[in-house]
Design a protein that fits this description.
This protein is of the alpha+beta class. The chain folds into 2 domains: about 50-165, Uridine Diphospho-n-acetylenolpyruvylglucosamine Reductase, domain 3 (2-Layer Sandwich), CATH 3.30.465; about 175-295, CO dehydrogenase flavoprotein, C-terminal domain (Enolase-like, domain 1), CATH 3.30.390.50. The chain has 12 helices and 13 strands. It has helices at about 5-15, 30-35, 70-75, 80-85, 85-90, 100, 105-110, 120-125, 145, 225-230, 235-250, 260-285, and strands spanning about 20-25, 45, 55-60, 65, 130-135, 140, 145-150, 150-155, 160-165, 175-180, 190-200, 205-215, 220. It has a 5-stranded antiparallel β-sheet with strand order 3-4-9-5-6. Strands 10-11-12-13 form a 4-stranded antiparallel β-sheet. A hairpin with a 3-residue loop joins β11 (about 190-200) and β12 (about 205-215). α10 packs antiparallel against α11 and α11 runs antiparallel to α12 (about 260-285). The longest helix is centred in the C-terminal third of the chain and has 27 residues, at about 260-285.
Length: about 300
């Protein structure tokens, strides 16, 4: 275990040892991997005490910046996240116990690149980007491009994730995160759906982004379902069609947590639940009717 005194010291170690270093912070995933003998690197780079990377702030350009060491608990408690990206609060409350939420980091979730990672679908629909630094350069890319395949990212061996950034959810936009786990405590997602879209008169959507979690080698954008959602009025009938297409766009496998068919049905149900809640809210505000009329 190596503990750098600064970010630059950490980058120096990564530059020297490259593929032979595992970066750790909260260690909620790595501790399990170590127990199971699934860590191949000889060295662990412990960056958990580099407080310069633990922050949540809004910049002058109206972007939200989350440092690599900000935990899920930090995000839940942050007034910036609560006001401007409630979808992340909803997602992070589903992740494990309070103890885990106070250790696990967003950067760790991204670096681990599990398709079941609860931070990733919301970051997809928020069009979030990842900032990576090495001794020689600093680069930024979308979360979607960063995640290459199952537990594989575009991070170079000498790079460190230093920040995640995204625009706030604007007025007129709506968003949700829905997840199915096998139990309430420490539940790994069997399937999840995240959405963010811009409402227009009708009601209809002028913009829509749907992401599916735990049903593919990485998180998936449901592009066909998005097109259907944008193609007409936002109604219960359209919701049913969008949810059905989401289930068809999923690429699940069968494992100990559920069969592929079960996951497809879960995606359908989660999508319907999220969109029906949005429709209920629109009808309640307009005085057209309550939740029963939308079902």
């Amino acid at each position: 275990m190596v503990s750098p005194r600064s970010v630059r010291d950490g980058l120096q170690i990564l530059d020297e040892r490259r593929e032979n270093v595992r970066i750790v912070a909260g260690s909620t995933d790595v501790s399990v991997m170590l127990k199971d003998g699934n860590v191949r690197e000889e060295w662990c780079l412990d960056i958990s005490h580099l407080d310069v990377l633990r922050y949540i702030k809004m910049s002058r350009d109206r972007l939200i910046h989350i440092g690599a060491l900000a935990t899920y608990g930090d995000c839940i408690r942050s007034s910036i996240i609560q006001r401007n990206a409630r979808i992340l609060v909803d997602a992070f409350y589903t992740l494990g116990s309070p103890q885990i939420r106070n250790l696990a980091t967003i950067a760790g979730n991204l670096g681990n690149a599990s398709p079941a990672g609860d931070a990733i679908p919301p970051l997809f629909v928020l069009n979030a980007s990842v900032v990576l630094e090495s001794l020689s350069e600093r680069r930024e890319m979308s979360v979607r491009d960063f995640l290459v395949d199952y537990r594989k990212t575009d991070r170079k061996p000498n790079e460190l994730i230093t920040e995640v950034r995204f625009s706030p959810v604007r007025r007129g936009q709506v968003a949700f995160f829905k997840k199915l786990g096998l139990c309430k405590a420490n539940a790994i997602a069997v399937a999840s759906v995240a959405f963010c879209g811009q409402m227009a008169e009708g009601p209809r959507f002028a913009d829509a982004r749907i992401a599916l979690g735990a049903v593919g080698p990485t998180v998936l954008r449901a592009s066909r379902a998005e097109k259907v959602l944008l193609s007409g009025l936002f109604t219960t009938e359209r919701i049913g069609e969008v949810a059905r297409i989401c289930s068809l766009e999923a690429q699940p496998i069968s494992d100990i947590r559920g069969s592929a068919e079960y996951r497809r049905k879960a995606i359908d149900g989660l999508a319907q639940l999220g969109f029906l809640e949005i429709l209920d809210g629109l009808r309640s505000r307009s005085g057209i009717g309550g939740s029963k009329s939308s079902r």
